[in-house]
Design goal:
single chain, 7-stranded antiparallel sheet, 38% strand, 7 strands, alpha+beta
């Protein structure tokens, strides 16, 4: 299963906001392969990032569930970048603005990003 979150600046809800849950087996299989691919590339300037999503992949291993998190961003040129990150998803901001975007990306790290094709997870 994949939970898809979006950071939005047009709402007063705590961010990021859950926007979709995917459980289709074929889509998940493709998404897992997609997440491992990509070309290492420098993340564009933070000011050029127009959308930020978090993909929370959940894998069942016996009685336990393992979470793997990816930050997925799109820039003003419609290029997409992603990076796996450690830890857990914190819904800790009420207002998502430029300074909050910068804080979140700095927490995840500005190195180790990959340029990827647009994710099918957002189009289904």
């Amino acid at each position: 299963m994949v939970n898809i979150y979006l950071y939005r600046n047009d709402t007063h809800r705590v961010q990021p906001e859950l926007i979709n849950v995917q459980s289709d087996p074929d889509l998940l299989r493709n998404a897992a392969q997609w997440a491992q691919n990509g070309k290492p590339e420098q993340l564009p300037n933070i000011q050029e990032i127009k959308q930020m999503h978090v993909f929370q992949f959940q894998f069942r291993n016996g009685d336990t569930v393992q979470d793997v998190y990816y930050m997925y961003v799109a820039d003003t040129s419609n290029e997409q970048y992603m990076k796996e990150f450690e830890g857990s998803l914190k819904k800790d901001t009420d207002k998502f603005d430029a300074s909050e975007k910068e804080r979140i990306l700095n927490l995840i790290g500005l190195e180790g990003w990959k340029r990827v094709p647009e994710s099918d997870l957002l189009n289904s």
